[in-house]
Predict the 3D structure of the following.
Amino acid sequence: MSTIRRFRAMDLLHFNNVNLDRYTETYDSQFYLSYMSNWPDLFTVAESPAQKLMGYSMGKVEGTGELWHGHVTALTVAPECRRLGLARGLMRGLEDASEKIHDCYFVDLFVRPSNTVAIQMYEHLGYILYRRVIDYYQGDGVMPTEYAHDMRKALPRDKHKKSIVPVKHAVNVEDTFF
């Protein structure tokens, strides 16, 4: 049993167990706090009955016109809490907020192609590979330099599913800004 709730500033002191994963990007405190203040409905945590953080999702909204969308900046679950459906629940919350609060056309995310478990989960949730982004992830001595899979899921506002027509060629990082 877990509870999904909004991220709170004090959570910064308690989520090291969640961030200890080679696929999880770790940011400075100011970055997390800016998401908490700008997009509080898109930054949630899964918490155990003992009030231990089990995972979190962090997102934002960006773009204009038909490119207005929710973006998953981070989704991670502590290793000991995986395979419980927490990531699915966190994603559902972010998708619902993107649709019902922000009236977005789609939700997108970037994932390393080597993170096959995450890719399979996103595909199961209805995400498609929209395009590949060249050298999006820079090597850091632990993880190699990799392109990114830009994955998307259309929301009901995109009635004709224009947002998920795949791009056939790889793009550069600067081509991904909205």
About this structure: The beta strands are 3-6, 43-47, 53-62, 69-77, 106-111, 128-137, 146-154. The mean pLDDT is 93.
